Amino acid sequence: MANPLKLYLTCIRNTLEAAMCLQNFPCQEVERHNKPEVELKTSPELLLNPVLICRNEAEKCLIETSINSLRISLKVKQADELENILAKKFLRFLSMRAEAFQVLRRKPVQGYDISFLITNYHCEEMQKQKLIDFIVQFMEDIDKEISELKMSVSTRGRLVASEFLKQFL
Amino acid sequence: MATFERASPALKEILLRIYNAEKPIEVDHHLYEFGSVEYYIKSSASEPFTYLSISTPLLSQGVFLSYGLSPYTLQMVRDISIDALDIVEPPTDGYQLTLRLDFSKLPHDKESLKIITEVSSVQAVILSSQLKEMLQNVNSWDISQGMYKPIKLIYHPREPFYVIRQPQKIVAVFPMRFKDHSDVIIATSFFQELMDVGSSGKWAKVPHCNWSPIPPPELIGEPFEDLSTNGGFVSFDISSHHVEGKRLDKTVWSLLNFYAYVKHHVKCTRGFIQRRMRRRMDSLVQVLEKSMIEENGEIKKIKGNAGWKKMKKWMRLTSKSKMIKRRYHDFRKKMKRIRFRIKIHGFARFRRRWLTMPNFSSSMGYTQLKNNN
Predict the structure, then answer these.
(1) Residue among B37, B311, B247 at smallest CA distance from B156
(2) Is residue B148 over pLDDT 60?
(3) SUPFAM superfamilies, alphabetically (chain A) (predicted)?
(4) Residue B185 touches partner A, C-beta closer than 8 Å
């Protein structure tokens, strides 16, 4: 892993370890309801300060915490138009299948490419350390997958172009 | 792909059926292909001939076609089979060309299949011959202001392309249009690879290929709607080397099918991206499954290659079975209440305590230690 990326991911990991201290907290507004407070934002006393970690202008991570839930939003690197559409397609594909990931949000927060919503129930069902490992691993895998997809598309294009030009020989 | 094959599959099937029939059969078929090509096949038991009429939009509506198909095109069609094929004049009403086929004059070996395949590709022969004539024939081209005027050709209804004569070469320009923005990006990446590959030393003999987002200067003066594109302009420089002998046929067919080739590549690339995304998603879900906490001392074993769909199904089944159990229990209670109308006070408690089978397995997951004191 390159050094700048490693520092970025380490910073995110440390922040998540501090932020992922969630507990059950029923809704103060509506009786017998239990809602993730980070989504509603109706009670400021239940929200912590959001943390924005920027690797550069194009890549950043926003971590918003509340008493019973945590929201992580990611902006992925997109160097050119091709990476842009590949990232958009892939992240939209994953978001549409959010129920498979449980902690993934169906719609990303505005200004970001993908968002996670972790509640106290997820922390009870899953191990906290492994959940953080999953988020960090996810970020690495996304970058790797987009680079590989871009390379595959270019390679396919080159092969198809060669086949087309062969007809003129 | 049907658009890359010259022969029409449906027409070939009908002609083979007529050829292979033991005795003459009655056939009266109208075939429509690609929205604008029409075939009419007529064969009767009383006559030994089969008539095939073709109507196809021609490449160019210019001066070549004032008097119908050119003699060059008609000769190309006759060359398919001199013995078994004859052109009927005048053609059937509503059609540009009518052929009379005599299957009895076809050889009784594999050669017959080859001839029938070539007859089925008569539409490709007509269109290719028109482009061949243009590439070979220089003198009849319009000259305007010292420059040769570009000729607009239409192979597919909404996808015209231009052929421009220049000294020492002919330039074929393709304005590219796509419906989706992601198709534009994938196609642009392909055109850049095409330029890179074409300019390498190994491919020196192929036509020089160029892509630009703006119309080339040769197309100045053409209608605005033909020059407004989102995929840019691809141009090929065809030299005399590429139209010599047998290469002429290949060059012409490649140019006519360039649009279809690009669209097919874009579609296949999208399918490839979709498949890769699905595979990657399965691997990402497996990482998350490892973070699930162990229950009752047993690790939740989920097969590595089952993916998230089986996990979802399993979770749905377990919740369904609990619901069924609850409903059965409620139903049993209701039936008992209806059946046991005579109530004895205290009997229910007596029955619950002394007349039920003890439950030997503990639902709490632990056994109570005996008090030794």
Answers:
(1) B37
(2) yes
(3) Arp2/3 complex subunits (SSF69645)
(4) yes
Better pLDDT: A71 or B238: A71
Contact at 8 Å (CB) between B125 and B58? no
Asked whether the whole model's pTM tops 0.80, one would answer no
Q: How far is CA A89 from CA A106, A107, B230, in A?
A: 14, 13, 20
Q: Which residues pair with B161 in a beta bridge?
A: B153
CA terminus-to-terminus distance, chain A: 45
Does the domain at B9-132 match CATH 3.30.1460.20? Answer given as: yes
> What are the angstrom distances between the C-alpha of B250 and each of A38, A121, B77, B151, B176?
64, 66, 17, 21, 22
Q: Is A154 on the interface with B (CB under 8 A)?
A: yes
Q: pLDDT (tens digit, 9 = 90+) per residue, A2-47?
A: 677 889 999 999 999 999 999 999 999 889 999 999 999 888 999 9
Is residue B312 over pLDDT 70?
A: no
Place of tokens 């230690």: B369
- The tokens for A43 are 């009670």
Residue range B160-177, pLDDT digits in tens: 888 888 877 888 999 999
CB count within 10 Å of CB B319 equals 10
Residue in chain A closest to B200 (alpha carbons) equals A162
Contact at CB, A97 and B281, closer than 8 angstroms: yes
Instruction: Tell me A55's DSSP state.
Output: S
| Of A47-51, B133-137, B270-274, B283-287, minimum mean pLDDT range | B133-137
User: Cα(B255)–Cα(B124) distance, rounded to whole angstroms?
Assistant: 12
Q: Indicate the residue of B250, B269, B291 with minimum beta-carbon distance to A156.
A: B269
Give the CATH number of domain B139-256; options: 3.30.1460.20, 1.10.10.10, 3.90.230.10, 3.30.230.10.
Answer: 3.30.1460.20
A-B CB pairs within 8 A amount to 119
How would you class B194 by CB atoms within 10 Å of its CB: exposed for 0-12, middle for 13-18, buried for 19 or more? buried
Q: Report the C-alpha gap between B298 and B33 in whole angstroms.
A: 62
Report whether pLDDT(B1) > 50: no
Question: Tokens at residue B149, please?
Answer: 């005027």
* A164: chain B residues, CB-CB within 8 Å: 194, 254, 261
Residues of each domain in chain B carrying CATH 3.30.1460.20: 9-132, 139-256
The secondary structure element, H or E, covering residue A130 is: helix A128-166
pLDDT of B36 higher than 80: no
Give every strand in the sheet of A114-119, ordered side by side.
Answer: A51-54, A60-65, A69-75, A114-119
* Candidates A125, A137, A156; nearest CB to B292: A125
Question: A165 and B292 in contact (C-beta within 8 Å)?
Answer: no
